[in-house]
Amino acid sequence: MAEGAHRSPLAGLIGGGLKLRYGSHPRADKRLRMETLVPQPIIAATGLYVPPESISNDELVSAFNAYVANFNAENAAAIARGELTPLQPSSAEFIEKASGIKSRYVVNKSGILDPAVMRPNIPERSNAELSVLAEMAVLAARDALAAWGGDIVEIGAVICAASNMQRPYPAIAIEVQNALGISGFAFDMNVACSSATFGIKTAADFVLGGSVRGVLVVNPEICSGHLNFRDRDSHFIFGDVATAVVVTEETLASGGWAILGTRLKTEFSNNIRNNFGFLNRCAPEGIGAPDKLFVQEGRKVFREVVPMVIEMIVDHAEDIGVDPRGLKRLWLHQANINMNDMIGRRVLDRAPTAEENVIILDAFANTSSAGSIIAFHSSNSDFAPGETGLICSFGAGYSAGTVFVRKR
Ligand code: COA
After folding, report:
1. Which residues have C-beta atoms less than 6 Å from ligand 1?
2. End-to-end Cα distance, the chain
3. Are the C-beta atoms of 309 and 343 separated by less than 8 Å?
4. Of the residues 160, 193, 223, 392, which is catalytic?
5. Structure confidence at residue 38 (pLDDT)
6. pLDDT at res. 31
7. Ligand 1 center to residue 196 CA distance, Å?
8. Max intra-chain CA distance, the chain
9. Residue 322 has what pLDDT?
10. Residue 202 — φ and ψ, nearest 5°?
11. What is the tally of structural domains in the chain?
12. Residue 223 among the catalytic residues
């Protein structure tokens, strides 16, 4: 048997439900031999980079309310004539109650909190410098690679899986690959908040298919860059962070997490959108319009995504022979605490404890693709070999991904 090749009882399942049949099939021997050579992918390690500045709800609300007061004062005459609706103030109590968010980390605080600016200040860098998104990714990647402790030559690919790329090309992933001295290939992929699980599945499939022996997946998210801080309904939602996941053949790490199954799902919806793009300059009338930043119908998202995700988790668990009620931990996407409560209750079939249903959005807010990975990274050290948990992300598209893992 070749080094790194093992009989994989889950080989057919990793690919999304294909089961190999033996016995009566005329090519059964050949199939069995192929399965015997399938390298089993694992999550070898994870890493995290947290920006140094954070903004509390009170700070965010006071900047927003200053902007509202200025706007209403400047437009007092039009408001008095009934030509303009006055803006309504925001409230820290509402934010915490409706979302569970108490504060968020950001790459630049001063710009966001300046009522005349209300966006992060992130100066351009020369092409000779690492871009800010790649820099965050590299810091998270170094954390993950150190935790893995393996030889970097075993990493054959880098995937940057995130909601917003700094530029169309060259890929951020190639910049990260270059900065870390990784050979092979690299590319960017964007599946909004589900990017990390889509990236993990892609990486696991690369390993399973024998393309490479190890993949670095990075999720740098500067969500504050696409957040409309002048929109009362959503100005509190996002934060900035970067996470990294090392996926390798099982022979390349001791410990880590067996990947029991990965599954992806998408279903078109307009309820979370961002129309920013390279064709905007061809329609100058739309430049600067609110839809060129993040917009959502939050209530509809809540109503539609929660049942979709519950069904997906329960079906996937059943298909791979995992009893969802026996999961030790849920590391769910971190968008809204009430969504996670509902999903947790249905999946575990009881009210989950705080330990079982990890919440990090109180301190991080929604960090898009990185949320479930922060939860996983920061709350898994108490697992004993054989214990099982679920990484699950969901968001725009709609999109959702499930990754069941078992401690090795
Ligand atoms: N401060 C104070 N009040 C506010 C407010 C603010 N910042 N924003 C909205 N409100 C008010 C609304 O005006 C409304 O008042 P009304 O009842 O008098 O009309 C009330 O609060 C409820 O507003 P609503 O937008 O229905 O809030 P909600 O309870 O649905 O919570 C979200 C809003 C965004 C937190 C919630 O819908 C959510 O998290 N949805 C899922 C989002 C998600 O997962 N997105 C994925 C992104 S990747």
Report:
1. 90-91, 94-95, 98-99, 193, 232-233, 272, 296, 298-299, 301-302, 335-336, 339, 366, 395-396
2. 22
3. yes
4. 193
5. 85
6. 47
7. 26
8. 84
9. 97
10. -60, -45
11. 1
12. no
Is residue 315 a part of any domain in this protein? yes
Q: How far is CA 299 from CA 98, 188, 233, 359, 365, in A?
A: 11, 30, 11, 20, 17
Would you say residue 221 lies in a domain?
no
Q: What is the 3-state secondary structure (H, E, C) of 314-373?
A: HHHHHHCCCCHHHCCEEEECCCCHHHHHHHHHHHHCCCCCCCCECCCHHHHCECHHHHHH
Low-confidence ranges of the chain (pLDDT < 50): 1-33
- Would you state the pLDDT for residue 300? 97
Q: What is the pLDDT of residues 213-263, one digit of tens each?
A: 999 999 999 999 999 999 999 999 999 999 999 999 999 999 999 999 999
Reported in sequence order, the residue ranges of 143-204 that DSSP labels E, i.e. its strands, are 157-161, 185-189
CB 57 within 8 A of CB 92: yes
| Probe residue for ligand 1, chosen from 233, 271, 296, 366 as the CB with the greatest number of ligand atoms within 8 Å | 233
| pLDDT, tens digit (0-9, with 9 covering 90-100), for 207-222 | 999 999 999 999 999 9
Domain housing 283: 257-407
* Short-list 148, 246, 256, 250, CA closest to 208: 250
Tally of CB atoms within 10 A around 155: 26
pLDDT value, residue 36: 57
- Ligand 1 geometric centre to CA of 4 (Å): 50
CA distance linking residue 113 with residue 57, whole number of Å = 11
CATH code of the domain in which 277 resides: 3.40.47.10
pLDDT at 12: 39
What pTM was estimated for this model as a whole? 0.91
Spatial distance between the Cα atoms of 222 and 167, rounded to a whole number of angstroms = 13
Asked if residues 204 and 177 have their Cβ atoms less than 8 Å apart, the reply is no
Ligand 1 centroid, distance to 252 Cα (angstroms): 46
How close is the Cα of 230 to the center of ligand 1, in Å?
A: 14
Asked whether residue 377 is domain-assigned, the answer is yes
Instruction: Judge whether 358 lies within some domain.
Output: yes
Spatial distance between the Cα atoms of 28 and 35, rounded to a whole number of angstroms = 10
